[in-house]
Structure formats: C-alpha cells, structure tokens
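Z., the sequence and structure:
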Amino acid sequence: MNDDQSTPRRPGRRGFLKAGAAAGLASGAGVARAALTRTPADDAQRQTEPFYGAHQAGIVTPQQSHTYMAAFDVKTDNRDELVSLLRAWTIAAARMTRGDTAAALNTPDDKSAPDSADVLGLGASALTVTFGFGPGLFKTGDGKDRFGLASKRPGALVDLPRFNGDQLIPEKTGGDLMIQACANDAQVAFHAVRQLARMGTLANVTTIRWGQAGFLSGPKGQTPRNLMGFKDGTNNPATAEPPLMNQFVWADGADAPWMKGGTYTVVRRIRITLEHWDTMELGFQEQVFGRHKYSGAPIGKKNEFDAVDLDAADKDGNPTIAENSHVRLSNHQSNSGMQILRRSYSYNDGTTFYIERWPPWRQETEYDAGLIFIAHQSDPRTGFIPINAKLAKFDMMNQFTTHVGSAIFAVPPGAKEGSYIGAQLFEA
C-alpha cells in the first residue's frame, strides 16, 4: 500500500470535541457562503434563454446538448380553439424557459395537477421552445381549408418531394404543428414538450403524431461529432453574422408577410447502419466524408476550418476530395453558393436482433440509431431540396444511411410579450 493510502488514525474524544467546536463556530458562516456560492453545475442549470423576441429561440441559439421534438396532428376544425391553444402554449413555454413549471402550482386549481413537476429543482438549463406550422395547417391532404389559411400559405412551405432512396415511415413523417424543446438537461427538454402535448390533449385540439429525443456531445464552443465519429456542422454559416442569417436563414416574407423574420425548418430522421460503418477502414471513412476524421480538416488540409479546395488533385490528377464525397456534394461551392443552417442531433433508440440465415446461421444486432437532421433556411426550394436531391443520388454515404422520417415546417418569427406564437398569421 502506498504511503498516501495508509489508514488514518482515529481521533480521540478530545479531538472530536475540538472538531465539533470548530464546526459549530464556522457553521453560520459556512451556510451563508453556501447560499451565496454557486457551482458551475448550478450556473448551467440556472441559465436561461429569452423566449420573446424578434426571432424564435432555438434557431441561432448556441446549441444545447439535448432535444425533444414532436409533431402534432390538429383534430379540431375550430379556428378559435386552435388560437386558444397557441395562446396557452405561448404562456406555458415562456414560463418553462424561465425555469418555472408550465402553470402555477399550489393554486385553487391545483387539483388538476397542472404540471408533472418532474423538473422541480432542475432549473431552466438553457431551455428553448420553438414552434412550427406544417403544410396541413393550411390545407389538408384532401384539399380542406379548415382554418381559412390556405391563401396565406408561403410558397416556400412546399411539400417535400420523395428523394431517391427514401424509405419513409408514415408514423415518423409530417405533422400540422411542431414543437422542438432544446436544453442542457434531457429531462427539462422532454418535460417541456410533455406539458404542451398534455395541454393539447386536454383541450381536444391536438394529438402527437411522432416524437423523437436527441443528444449531442462535445466541448463547449467546438463542433459536435455525430455517431459516425465526424464533426457535424463545420461549414454552417456563422450565426453571429446578421447578413449571413438574413441571406440564408431568415425568411424575407415577400409572399407571406407574417413569416418575415421566421425560417423554414426541414427535419429528417436518418437511420445509420453503425454496425456496418464500424467495419470500414479509417481511410475509406474519410473518403466518404471528404474530411479527416480526427481533426475535422478537409482532406489534404490540417485544420477543421481550412477552406475546402474542390480543385485539389493528387500526383495522378485524381481529385483529392472524391467526386461523390459528402463534403463535395453538400458544399456551397457545388450548390450555387447556397447554405443552410444545420442544427442536428444524434439519436439512439436501442437495438434490434435478427437471425442471419445464410450459413453459418447466427444472431446479429442492429442499432436503431442515427441522426435527427434539422436544417433551417430562408427557402427550402433553393436550400435543402436541391442540395439533398444531389446527395440522395450520388453521396457515398448512402450505403450507410436510410431516411425514414421527413417533415417541413414554417417557423414564424418570435412572439411579443402579451401576444402569442403565430399571431401574425391568424390576425393579419
């Protein structure tokens, strides 16, 4: 045993008395200091993001470590009932982003249990709640204009085309309304959506169509890595530069004034065959992405944010970055300068088992895991759609990925205090 691990001597009775007296003298000051001192963990829990503002939070907000997204079908055909729910959602969301419960507790109406109370003591954890409107809110699949909004549907809120290789699951696709909660605590994010979903159910206005939890990890201020081990979002337009956000993210409201300052959000659930990917050699993985795995640098470069050189070639004249690599096909240089703001999360929904029936028979495991691809842009017709159409046809990554969920939403601008999300649409 090392000297510093030896068993300490027990103090005698006098030692205990001295220690007790010292503790008693210091206890008052210690309690006071404890009340005034906050640890870094406490500060993270208490961090808040403003709910009200020109833009909705959760779009250019520094990305939190957890998300819970849900899409809803609207059951009612009554416009007033829908607006009433949006008002209630706005109030509840604003409360929760401050670190409060969705509704006040210990009131005469508390018998109805207005909040699940599972986040008491957790703090806001930088919670943001973002709302979006799907195409079905403006006109249903059978052409019904339930709320008199068909004429106000923006041209950019298109029905996404079916892309090459899509294997969409209806239960993970679409939705009339969207709520995304992001926080640095998984329970805080889930709690927010759970309370809002409950309100919609009790009002008999909405039902959940799909929900999905996600996570990301990485040092603060650095580009997070996806489950394939590569950095995800390196080439995003800088959120701190308003001209870039105005060009690529915020809608100008040209054909739909109520959307000015909002954005269009595409959500894709992409399953990744990690068990297959993990058998690939490092060099091949880097060719698929067009980047070095550990540094994040473009192939042939040293640093993550070095410019991508699509003209670079090796000594034999072959492109340094493969023609069908993900970076080449998605880079703005290959897409008429267009950029989208990626704010994606990984997901892991467990494992499934199957029997490999080709001799020798054996049991294999598959992960139900991958990426919740989330992209904000000023117009998906010039952003996500042409970029993804190219990727769907030629990207080497397609041999490891399957798109199983898809949705698009018009995310309106932020609400003013005393108003509600979407007021510009319903009151114009």
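Residues 13-36 form the longest helix (24 residues). The mean pLDDT is 89.

Let me know what you think.
H.
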